[in-house]
Records
---
Amino acid sequence: MGIAAEYRAKVNNSGIPEKILKAKESLWEYNKLINPKFFKETRPHLKILADTLQAIFEHRIIKMTGEKDWHLISTEEKQALDEQQTEYEACRNLAIDIPPRHGKSYSLSQFCDWVYGKDREQSIIAVTYNETLAGRFSVNVRDGIEATKEDDRFTVFNDVFPDTHIKYGDSAKGMWSLEGRFFSYLGTGFGGTITGVGCSIGIIDDPVKNHSEAFNDELLDAQYLWYTDTFLSRLEEDAIQIINMTRWNSRDLVGRVLSDEDAGDWYVLEMEACLNTKTHEMLCPELLSWKSYLKKKSKMSLVIFMANYHQKPVDLHGALYQKFQEYDHLPMDNEGNCLLEEIKSYCDTADEGNDFLCDIIYGTYNGEAYILNVIFTDEDMSKTEKQVAEAYYHWHVSWADIESNNGGRGFARAVARILKDEYGSNYTHIESFYQGANKIARIKSNATWVQDHIHFPRNWRDKWSDYFLAMKSFQASKKNKHDDGPDATTGVAEKMSQGSGNWLY
């Protein structure tokens, strides 16, 4: 097929190339056309983000009457619902929670351009951390529309939307208009003045600069007050809200809007940098490889790493445990002999499907506990029974306390059987017992002893990162999603405080 024939095959009766028609109707196709080097099919998370942004703009994130959760529907599905006059609610609030350097802010600026191409009547207010970043975001949107075509090999905005232009003489950095409009766009820093204009789309992009600000209660309170008193007052009826930010703290802006009475009004798009730590599957290996992921993890504070790359807000302020004792070497005598008196274990089996098993092996010396090994996992019991038995054999555990609640007694019998059948060992005395005391009360009442008398190896955040995070982030005064780590650690404290007379040798 010749070049001319090939071109004719790609246009319809209107004479418009197929790729242009697709870009008019699809934000993802538009993104690929404008910047094919960045927006690629090998980066599916960017397609998911583009499709979600388009869906909220087109009222295609919905829930039927009586439903609790939002779901994204296709254009055809929405058309069918509308033709059948089916009642449904369309979501207008989107929270985006994606790792840094994965294209979320750039995707938002592209979204703004595409929206203006689709509907010049739209008005946007975009809020970023400060005026400098607000200006940069504004320029990206404005320059995307004004881009001049200098090479036929590349596509620019006006190739797709030839009737949309910036108003001549009205293209200031922070505030500008499209032709035929009094106001189209305002960019400002968080806490800035927004007067005289309203918007059909309000965007807040990364309002928190770093972890220091994320745990500054005064700043978080001030941001939320500005959001409720100023930003919300600028939103027109049926306006779209988009908050794009790294989650640091349950009291950050997204945390608050998701915890208030209107929490059900929000659709949350959340992605983690690493999809599977066992298979090393990454969200986008082109933007963050497994090797780079591990390097960042080794150099960053784990709580900050988890917030940035796994969207797990970590509240350091209000954490129950404010300090931990750490050791470089186990207690030794002058000849270099280890002074540990006994090796013991405390095991809290998983209560429910989303709970973690936590088995802690520790040595005792002079009334202090030295943590030697931790198994902290949500794998099923068929695997954890073997892991625990192997650990008991390896560490020469003499006494193991295993909570008998919720299948713990059967777990204890299985561990004993594996030790006997696979390791030929009856060295470990396994004691299963029922734990009936209030879990949270136990954890809080033993917190001081845990902080003063339980010693963790210096590199415990790297050895047992999930357990470390569970201990570091456990909140003193609010409901915690998981308490398995603090619960088992409290068990160690309780057994230690019973005194040596209660141990069997």
---
Amino acid sequence: MYGLVNKAVQGLIIENYGEETWDKIKMRANVDVEMFISNESYSDSMTYDLLVAASEIVNQPASELLRLLGNYWITEIAVQHYGSMMDAGGNSFVEFMKNLPNFHRRVAMIFPNLEPPSFSILKEEKNSLHLIYESTRNGLEMFVVGILEGLAKRHKIKIKIDQSKLENDEPVEGLNQTLFIIDWESVS
């Protein structure tokens, strides 16, 4: 993963638990990087190790930290680094979700080795969306939930998310597929 992801983990931890806790997490994860460089690639295992260590040290389930990280990614990181692209992504939650593939293509111009997940809309109704998430990385579904929650805040809606693994007749080796059923209502 790119350093920007690790910087997001660092920012989330420091903001919520302090610098000293971040130092303990790095030590537990055997990470001796002083400063993550946003556009430099780091091993996925480093990011996972940081999240596991964070879960242990702050006594939070890893799934909850991933959810918080996804939300933080939208409300802090995306706004800081991709603000104009976020604004151009659409005027509604549905518009933004439809434009997400274009958003990832633009980000890939900045990060050429980016391996983003893919999102496709299976079904759209008035206040509901069936969204397919596909990724070569394991265990990031709760990160996606946090991203969806952050996008919902951004578009002033309250969402409810149900998720299930997709069972295909012909599963693609090494590809994780999850169906997110998202229902929402406007927030005043």
